[in-house]
Amino acid sequence: MTTVSSGELEAVARRLAGERFDGYAARGLARAYEEYVGRRRRAVGPLGLTVNGRSYPSLYSVIVDPEVPFSQGELRFEGSPSSVRADDASVAFERITLAEDGSAELHARDGGPARRAIARVLLREHYVVRPQAEDARGAGIGGVRLPSLFGTVGEGVELCRSARLVPFEIALLLYLPEERARYEVDLVHMALLADPRSGRLAAGRRVRRTSRLAWGLDRRIGRGYLSLLAARCLEVLVESNGLTSIDLAHVFGGVREIVDSALQALVQQRYAVFDPRTGIYRARMEAFLPSADLAAEPPAAPVRPELRTSVQELIAAADARATCPLCGKPLPEGHPLLCDDCATKVGIP
Fold this sequence. Notes:
Elements: H1 6-17, H2 23-39, E1 43-51, E2 54-56, H3 60-63, E3 73-77, E4 93-98, E5 103-108, E6 115-128, H4 132-136, E7 150-151, H5 153-162, E8 165-175, E9 180-186, E10 191-193, H6 211-221, H7 228-238, E11 243-244, H8 245-252, H9 256-268, E12 272-275, E13 280-283, H10 311-321, H11 340-345
Antiparallel strand pairs: 1-2, 1-3, 1-10, 3-4, 4-5, 5-6, 6-7, 6-8, 8-9, 9-10, 11-13, 12-13
Helix pairs in contact: 1-2, 7-9, 8-9
């Protein structure tokens, strides 16, 4: 398994930032590296990387070379099948081929046919080189306004170069016809990481969401306004029917008060609601429906959890589950608000 040391990461940052990489930035990078390694999750197995037909030991080798455009790539799972636990359900690929247009093919380990998907990357944990002079005068992140942490793999590589961003971990997102698969990649060790819920949250408490809703969620997180913990909590909330702060503290192995603070931030930003009677936090699915104006803020008025029956929320819930919100039957293609039987009963033509 490839391991990139802190000294090698410093060399990467120096290549990206040039003279802007001063002693202040070096100390910041070292702290960020140590914090990341300290909270790193269990690795499922090593990964191999090929870009434009050439093998690379890590993505950093591609990022630091501006002459290498990310046109085509392939990510291979090189771990032993015995290292994959039963609850590592998302680890179901032998290799993933990435095309220049942002599409991908997912090749399963069982040798089944390749599945076509839309591929995007989320720059999860990272450090933006910020010299002391820019920090002292309160400049933007690294003097560069990050447009989005969400995009194609090629766009992610270009963002690292232009914004002087050193990534530690990314999420590779594959939008399949019926669902989204998320693969967390540790770039420091070039390894696939286990789902944080593995062994800590029963599989029966997970809910599969549609690609459409997952796309909206990932783009919201990609705006970079949420803390790392808040973003992770939100992802788990969306893929469940509601969890308590105790549940999430167990998933992420943190202190309950810190997790609760992150959840309260989600409530304040109207991405989640809290039921004080049960202590359960639930994601507001309608906040992640695709819209023409992604920059628009969530609705000004928070939704009371005991009155979650608005038409907008019923539509969002149906879209999220692809089932009728009244009877639970599967909805036909196009996801109308209600199934035919319920629509007839309530008088909807």
